[in-house]
């Protein structure tokens, strides 16, 4: 029934409104206009006389570049009973849409991006939730990891149909960690074991973009626009996504859903954290500075290629918002058949025929993109053909090259040219990988890094290869710094169902998609 479409005549024109995209319906007092939203609309005299009864439907209208907007259309009737019947029927249809959230727990990071999270929520999102009769409990975080810890220990999750993150990738990552950790603890799963299968989490996470990069939102929804995201949440969209788990010496470190980057993106992030006062512009400053330092890192990358899939990172196809509305489109994955039938482990069991491959070298960057990582700076992203929920990550190795060539590679992320079509760049679609730096990281060095310090002089003295390049970078894990250089990452999938979006395996889960971007699309 959610696809039932109403064609009604309004002022002589015909409108088709899919029930699944109706946000609200309200009756109008035609004589006086509507008081519902505080604004009075004077109806044209002619139609008022001819049709004394009317109701207004608020619905989703597709705008430019993946944006969604809320529009109103008013329908006029001759009879009051008929008008009420329409309103009642539409309300019943809306109530029957079980994938729509009714109660949401919202966390706002007032500190992320341009520090506009609270304003964005109050002005752009809350009025839409109210219109759609969604009740909310809003928590403005007071410190880093507030949302993670609240979700992990205190939140009464049974009361909610979903949680909403107002912030950037770091805030989203906090919430994924809170929800996933709680689910594993409740089910007795040991996160430290890379081989342990994660138990799916039943709650979805919606993202309202209010951060600096908003890559998770952009890559899933197609745009970083708070109104679009709010509307996806309201209509109950869901998008599974891969979640990689990162371990070090059999100790769980973190989950990652977008970028795991060593070298360029790790160094850039570490430098930019010290310049948070600059807002999102810190990434431009630190990016430029990191580009000039041109550090490379020696080590060994081992990976297990995803041999059971047909797609490759060099495909010209894109997997992102607007293309996959899994939950609402019914026919699970109907619109995503290229992934489903060809790549999805539900339909094709993984087989690791090729075995592990090992590559040693000097790298300017080692990036693992579990999704395209598209963002406003790079609308096609780090790995444009990466899939959102196929249980793989695209491993991009950028070997030591000249500054000029590295700049060409970076600039290609912002143009139509292929960033992988360069002799010093290779890309592999993998299920698992490991990185081991050439020089062993001592515990004391790790402790210092964990406390945010970096002794360059000592690192350089201990590093026989050169006098200016440090031996280790750190990992950029969805915008959070991981000081451990040696890591083990996994992307193995297990079947999941419509409501439980994670899969996991030793190293990767498919996360909740959430509302709207929810894992948005
Ligand atoms: C000289 C022109 C260079 C252009 C390079 C463009 C390459 C862009 C690739 C972008 C990849 C973005 C991956 C996303 C990472 C985010 O998770 C992370 C944290 O986001 P947030 O919490 O919202 O701040 N952001 C970053 O690590 C910054 C990446 C900035 C890239 C310039
Ligand atoms: N109230 C708060 N005060 C300080 N830091 C916070 C607060 N709430 C969340 N954080 C942290 O802020 C960091 C950045 O958040 P995020 O929303 O990703 O913004 P940005 O995109 O600008 O990095 C995250 O690491 C998160 O843990
Ligand atoms: Ca993927």
What does this protein look like?
With 521 residues, the protein is of the alpha+beta class. It has two domains: 93 residues, PH-domain like (Roll), CATH 2.30.29; 416 residues, Sandwich (Tumour Suppressor Smad4), CATH 2.60.200. Strands 10, 11, 12, 13, 14, 15, 16, 17, 18, 19 and 20 form an eleven-stranded antiparallel sheet that branches. A hairpin with a 5-residue loop joins strand 4 and strand 5. Helix 3 runs parallel beside helix 7, helix 4 packs parallel to helix 5 and helix 8 packs across helix 9. The chain is elongated and about 80 Å long. The two termini are 23 Å apart. Adenosine-5'-diphosphate binds next to helix 5. It comes from Oncorhynchus kisutch (Coho salmon). One of its GO terms (molecular function) is ceramide kinase activity.
- What percentage of the residues does DSSP assign to strands (E)? 25-35%
The distinct ligands, each listed once, are:
the ligand CCCCCCCCCCCCC/C=C/[C@@H](O)[C@H](COP(=O)(O)O)NC(=O)CCCCC, adenosine-5'-diphosphate, calcium ion
Highest-level CATH class of the largest domain: Mainly Beta
Relative helix content: 25-40%
Count the DSSP helices.
13
**What assembly state would you assign to the polypeptide chains in this entry?**
single chain
Task: Give the N-to-C terminal Cα separation.
Answer: 23 Å
Major sheet description: 11 strands, antiparallel
How big is the Rg?
Answer: 25 Å
Give the helix/strand class.
alpha+beta
Number of strands: 20
CATH fold type of the largest domain = Tumour Suppressor Smad4
The residue-averaged pLDDT reads 80
Number of domains: 2
CATH A-level architecture of the largest domain: Sandwich
Q: Which spans of ≥5 residues are poorly predicted at pLDDT below 50? A: 1-8, 33-43, 321-352, 493-521
Shape, per Cα inertia axes? elongated
Domain DAGKc: 99-250
GO biological process, one term: ceramide metabolic process
GO molecular function: ceramide kinase activity
Protein name: Ceramide kinase
């Amino acid at each position: 029934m959610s696809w039932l479409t109403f064609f009604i005549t309004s002022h002589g024109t015909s409108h088709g409104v899919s029930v699944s995209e109706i946000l609200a319906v309200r009756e109008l007092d035609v004589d006086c206009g509507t008081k519902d939203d505080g604004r009075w609309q004077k109806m044209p005299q002619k139609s008022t006389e001819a049709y004394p009864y009317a109701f207004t439907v608020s619905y989703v209208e597709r705008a430019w570049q993946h944006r969604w907007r809320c529009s109103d259309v008013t329908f006029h009737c001759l009879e009051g009973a008929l008008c009420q019947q329409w309103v009642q029927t539409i309300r019943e249809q809306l109530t029957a849409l079980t994938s729509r959230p009714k109660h949401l727990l919202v966390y706002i990071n007032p500190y992320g991006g341009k520090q506009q999270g609270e304003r964005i929520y109050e002005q752009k999102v809350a009025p839409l939730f109210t219109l759609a009769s969604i009740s909310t409990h809003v928590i403005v975080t007071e410190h880093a990891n507030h949302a993670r810890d609240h979700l992990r220990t205190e939140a009464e999750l049974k009361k909610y149909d979903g949680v909403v993150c107002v912030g950037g990738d770091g805030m989203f990552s906090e919430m994924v960690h809170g929800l996933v950790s709680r689910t594993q603890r409740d089910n007795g799963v040991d996160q430290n074991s890379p081989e342990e299968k994660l138990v799916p989490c039943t709650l979805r996470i919606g993202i309202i973009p209010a951060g600096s990069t908003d890559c998770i939102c952009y890559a899933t929804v197609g745009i970083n626009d708070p109104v679009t995201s709010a509307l996806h949440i309201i209509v109950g969209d869901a998008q599974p996504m891969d979640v990689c788990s990162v371990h070090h010496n059999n100790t769980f470190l973190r989950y990652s859903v977008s970028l795991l980057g060593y070298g360029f993106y790790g160094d850039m992030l570490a430098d930019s954290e010290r310049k948070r006062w600059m807002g999102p512009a810190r990434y431009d400053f630190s990016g430029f500075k990191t580009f000039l330092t041109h550090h490379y890192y020696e080590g060994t990358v081992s990976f297990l290629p995803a041999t059971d899939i047909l797609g490759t990172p060099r495909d010209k196809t894109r997997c992102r918002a607007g293309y996959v509305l899994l939950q609402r489109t019914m026919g699970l994955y109907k619109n995503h058949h290229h992934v489903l039938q060809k790549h999805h482990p539900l339909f094709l069991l993984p087989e690791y025929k090729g075995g592990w491959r090992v590559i040693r070298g000097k790298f300017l960057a080692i990036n693992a993109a579990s999704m395209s990582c598209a963002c406003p700076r790079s609308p096609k992203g780090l790995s444009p053909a990466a899939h959102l929920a196929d249980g793989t990550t695209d491993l991009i190795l950028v070997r030591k090259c000249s500054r000029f060539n590295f700049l060409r590679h970076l600039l290609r992320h912002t143009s139509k040219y292929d960033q992988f079509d360069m002799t010093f760049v290779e890309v592999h679609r993998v299920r698992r990988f490991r990185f081991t730096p050439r020089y062993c990281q001592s515990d004391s060095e790790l402790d210092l890094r964990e406390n945010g310090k970096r002794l360059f002089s000592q690192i350089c003295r201990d590093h026989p290869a050169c006098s200016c390049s440090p031996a280790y970078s750190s990992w950029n894990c969805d915008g959070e710094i991981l000081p451990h250089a040696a890591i083990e990452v996994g992307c193995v999938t297990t079947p999941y169902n419509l409501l439980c979006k994670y899969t996991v395996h030793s190293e990767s889960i498919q996360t909740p998609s959430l509302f709207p971007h929810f894992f948005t699309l």
